[in-house]
Amino acid sequence: MISRVVLALALTAPPAMNPAMNPAMTSAMTPAVNSGATPGTAARHPCPVAMPPRTTCGFLEVPERRDAPGRTVKVGYAVRVAGAGEADPLVFMGGGPGSASMDAMSVLSAMFPDRDVVTVEPRGGRHSQPSLACPETAQALLGQLRRPAAVMAADGTADGTADGAIDRAADVAAAALRCRDRLREEGVDLRGYRTQEIAADVVALREELGYDAWHLFGVGYSTRVMLGVAAADPGGVRSAVLDSFLPMGAGRYDGAERDLGGTLARLGVGERFASVRARLNASPARVPMTDTVLGRAFTARVTGDDLAAIMAGALRGADVAAVAPALVGGLAEGRDELLRPLVDAAGERLAARVWGLYHAVQCQDEVPFNTFTPKSRLFTINADKAVCDAWQVSRSEPANATPSAPVYVLAGRYDPAAPAATARSAARALPDARFEEFAGASHAVFLTSGCARAKITAFVADPATTPAAPCAAPTGPGDLHVTGAPYLISRSPWLAAPFAAFALASLVQLVSGALRGRAPAAFGGLAGVAFTGLMAQSAHALAGANGSALAVGVPGTTGPYTWIAVASAVLTAAALLRDRGWPQIAATVIGAGFLIWWFTWFL
């Protein structure tokens, strides 16, 4: 549900035979390798995740620091060969910093069936060696939700909230220092993990694989990487696609509150969210969740500012943005059970990030471009600043590179991480760029918009082509009846036992009533079967249209459908007047119990 969409590149390729496991097959599917290219040495290895057919994986060995040669690191990559295709290949990197790239191979292969597709992992990422995982940092960040900020004003808006958030960030900095010291003992030099080096890795990979030129595809953070590649290797770049463009020097931290507020305003819930935030700052909500690092359950205490930080991450998913009006509306009515899916998703996101790489990049390439005044009230921002102050690896990267190749910039209307206005302004500064904003989309537009994928494919095929008509805004989830019950059932299916018992009893009553010629009993069973069938069908359709909708509520048709269940219970009770046997008594009791459960808990 929500947890499936807030992870920007959490795509799993379908199970498939992995050619990399069979050396006899890989030799026929691997592109020509220039064994004498420098710098870098490539070597194949089994793919770490399931991949489409004709895909091989490898490591590119490169210097950890090109400005101080010595130690080398291995950059993971995957190549899906198109077969007889002669078109220039495409290379993709995930965002983050630190999101896995290989997980998107199945989507990219479907988009570009006639050209080779290469996915390259960032150095230090999950599928590279070494991987700069910092479970210490993840654990400390999860700990931020164990207790609210130490100082609270009565209205939840005073500076004390920010001061308390900064105090909590010190715990994260201490944990990150332990991770830094451990990585240093392993020989890692964090100064080698920055955008300029990551871009150089992509250039080295093209040379090592023997491609004359290719098309670049970056999303979120990696749009910076791809701009660096285009500027450093102009002869090897045909075009660049920048999805959710995040220009260097945009002041991401300084603008975080403004960008979140702008997204909420465009969704029409700015004022309601502000009231929810103030309420939770004054009286934090207690939300059960699981520490995904240790696997232990605990009760999170979520303040309004914590919720704002969580929403800033959650709204990167277009599915979440589509249900945000219903979600915020429910929270404004005091339905704090709706916090559970948000908090669970945030916990999964915090545990999944490769924090060593993330902070190495942020401390060198993002923090120097921010002033951090006034003080932020978002614990995620304060934690990043505290870590960078403790690590002392800050250095300022050069300004945004200017590529000579054609560029296609995409932005989602509801993206709080890479706002469309920022991307539009940055695109104007590029000499040969077109910009397009997608209604209804958020971060990583290509993952949720088939129209955007078609436009990207057309641009790569012919960067000079005339842009097609704008994509139509996707249809929303429709009217929702807000309730947290479906999400709780998804976590603990036994909670749906009353619904299952009612469905089974209705079916038995329908069959037995029809066979025995008992019309009230038969019609009561028929109404119950119709209700459960309609509810199951509408919930399935809603989940198919929006993966996050059932975490917020059920279709608005639930209200009218409920009257069918009531009619079933009334007819069942009426049948009891003629048949006082135990089967009819049981059906009546189950129907009455179901309605109590339905009205008092589910709805």
TrEMBL record:
UniProt cross-references to PANTHER family, sorted A to Z: AB HYDROLASE-1 DOMAIN-CONTAINING PROTEIN, HYDROLASE, ALPHA/BETA FOLD FAMILY PROTEIN
Taxonomic classification: Bacteria, Bacillati, Actinomycetota, Actinomycetes, Streptosporangiales
Pfam families: Abhydrolase_4
Domain Peptidase S33 tripeptidyl aminopeptidase-like C-terminal: 384-465
Transmembrane portions of the chain: 494-515, 522-540, 560-577, 584-602
Entry GO MF terms: hydrolase activity
Protein name in the entry: Alpha/beta hydrolase
InterPro entries: AB_hydrolase (IPR050471), AB_hydrolase_fold (IPR029058), Pept_S33_TAP-like_C (IPR013595)
Keywords: Hydrolase, Membrane, Signal, Transmembrane, Transmembrane helix
Range of residues in the leader sequence: 1-18
Keyword Hydrolase: yes
Species this protein is from: Nonomuraea deserti
